[in-house]
Amino acid sequence: MNLRSIRTRLRIAATIAHLPVLALTACGSGDTSGATSADAQASPAPTDDPVAAVRKVDSVAALLPADVRKAGTLRVGSSIGFPPGAYYPNGPDKPPAGQDIDIADAVAKVLGVKLERQDASFETILPALGSGKYDFGTGNFGVTTERLKTIDFVTYINDGQGFAVKKGNTVLGKKAADLTQLCGLTIGTGAGTTFESTLTAQKGVCAKASKKPYDVKVYSENAATLTALQQGRIDVIMSTINGLRYQAAQPASQTTFLGEFHRLDVGFAFKKGSPLTKAFQAAVNELIKNGTYARTLAKWGTTASAIDTSRINPPEHT
Predict the structure, then answer these.
(1) What whole-number distance in Å separates Cα of residue 184 and Cα of residue 212?
(2) Which of 18, 150, 226, 304 has its CA 20 to 30 A from that of 67?
(3) In 3D, which of 258, 245, 238 has the Cα closest to residue 301?
């Protein structure tokens, strides 16, 4: 990454950090109304710390390869975007926070290892796993059939794809659950995401419906996508369900969540054949069993996305 791009990322992260942070209760997975409830927090991020009480579990740590146990560290490529997943609540020179950060830190404590977190852009993390640059990656990576060809996943939450518009924009009505509703519009989404691949793969739906095709604009930063929406350069954002709900609860964002399109399991990402997956699965299940997982999701307002058990490489939701 060159100096100019680093400075750009820091400016964007700083912008995100100064948005008011809100805790919200997400709707159930079957509700696409976009309704949320929000309460302003006095501090930049929720103060509950469910990770603090987590301790090493020897039987789970024993599932790690011997060389990893000896080294005592794991390198994680971490995409820092916006809450509730991962963001900088106090500026880019301070530690990141968010659901992904807490769950990864808790897993590391169960395994008795320390994390060497490296901030990386979302689209670069999965390709870098194969080269060995990172031991695993986080960034709200959805489990898809295509990704399963080259990546192993250990699931820790159920999220997915949704839509948002600028507040007051009625171009899609009150809900958006069908790609044909996007025909003739300009859609903004993240580079290297399932949203980009979905929009690209299904662009023909408009022709089949005898409608004008939609246009897709791809951005490398979530904040850039939001800015494009606010400035009218795009009509709709397609992004994570939890992220868009959280964003819509922030008055400064001036967005409205318009519902879910496709649910996806989300997981830690590993290179294919990684010896780490069983240990991570056992660690996530330990957190589910001891209550840390539920407290973490409650902290970030994502309880509706909880899973009952972690899985390795589940099939994509149909």
Answers:
(1) 5
(2) 150
(3) 245
